[in-house]
Design goal:
heterodimer; A: 114 residues; mainly beta; 0% helix; B: 115 residues
């Protein structure tokens, strides 16, 4: 079935380091891809999305490019801040025309230290 | 405007008791989703509502779980005869309509602990 795999955490980085969180997916058809973020004590928030191949989603300095040839949607940020500490979930949806449940990866916990 | 709200924020219950979890979606959102976030299982889809109908209940883990939605707005997830493995954070999301062009907005969740 459809699934999302992302790198195991936790990831610990120093402030201003470069971040990559790998995400690959398995799906039939052409899903939309998402990164959600969950800050400590808060609910899930959509960070960015891409709806078709080669699209780049970006927000708050984070970027991810929809790569259909490698079925990947890796999250990157050039210089992380302490405030980026959170759990990041890669996700997909879009396999049905009438509605779309979101299928999430297991999440990657990021801690940024000063 | 107001986002998705859920109540209670925390619930501790004894094994075997019934619990009800409530979700208030964003006003005007016709699509509503329930998910469960638990250790070892990650985030999993439970059920989807379009209006008051639930065309997909495939994620409900057992017949102890049920959900309803009334007036195209508030939804209640009921767990009967709770078990310890039901302990998790239950998340509700709503979107303007079903379909992948509409962003799902998540509530803060209800943390359920079954003792």
């Amino acid at each position: 079935g459809d699934s999302v795999t992302q790198m195991e955490g936790p990831v610990t980085l120093s402030e201003e380091a470069f971040l990559t969180i790998n995400c690959t997916y398995t799906a039939t058809g052409y899903p939309s891809l998402f990164w959600y973020v969950q800050y400590p004590g808060e609910g899930l928030q959509l960070l960015l999305k891409a709806t078709k191949a080669d699209d780049k989603g970006s927000n708050k300095g984070f970027e991810a490019t929809y790569r259909k040839e490698t079925t990947s949607f890796h999250l990157e940020k050039g210089s992380v801040q302490v405030s980026d500490s959170a759990v990041y979930f890669c996700a997909l949806s879009g396999m049905k025309t009438s509605y779309d449940k979101v299928i999430f990866g297991p999440g990657t916990s990021l801690s940024v230290i000063p | 405007g107001a986002g998705v709200s859920q109540s209670p924020s925390n619930k501790v219950t004894e094994k075997g008791k019934d619990v009800e979890l409530r979700c208030d979606p964003i006003s005007g959102h016709t699509a509503l989703y329930w998910y469960r976030q638990s250790l070892g299982q990650g985030l999993e889809f439970l059920i989807y509502f379009q209006g008051n109908s639930a065309p997909d209940k495939s994620g409900l883990p057992s017949d102890r779980f049920s959900a309803e939605r009334t007036g195209g707005s508030v939804s209640t997830l009921t767990i009967q005869r709770t078990q310890q493995e039901d302990s998790a954070v239950y998340l509700c999301a709503s979107s303007l309509k079903g379909g992948n062009t509409y962003e799902q907005y998540f509530g803060p969740g209800t943390r359920l602990t079954v003792t």
